[in-house]
Amino acid sequence: MRLMRACLPCLVVVCLLSSAAPAAGLLDSPWPAFRHDSAHTGASALLGPPDGSVLWEYPLGGVSS
């Protein structure tokens, strides 16, 4: 009985936290998930630069080709 009385607050907290979990689904953003969508197509409706130019670079310090 004493153990049950000690575990009851923990059980209440776990129940409250599990019921407050957000619903599963994609986020409301231009790139909501890994590889864009739930089918992981990697396709985006956004367009890149029209001339194919590189907008920025960052050297990673790896082996260059």
Extended strand count? 0
Distance between the termini: 70 Å
Which stretches are poorly predicted, pLDDT < 50 over at least 5 residues? none
Largest sheet: none
Rg over CA atoms, rounded to whole Å, is 24 Å
Strand percent estimate:
under 5%
Task: Characterize the structure shown.
With 65 residues, this protein is mainly α. It is built from one helix and no strands. It has one helix at residues 2-19. It is elongated. The mean pLDDT is 75.
Name the features.
single chain
Summarize the structure.
With 65 residues, the chain is an all-alpha fold. 28% of the residues lie in helices and 0% in strands. The chain has one helix at 2-19.
Please specify the SSE layout and strand pairing.
Elements lengths: L1 H18 L46
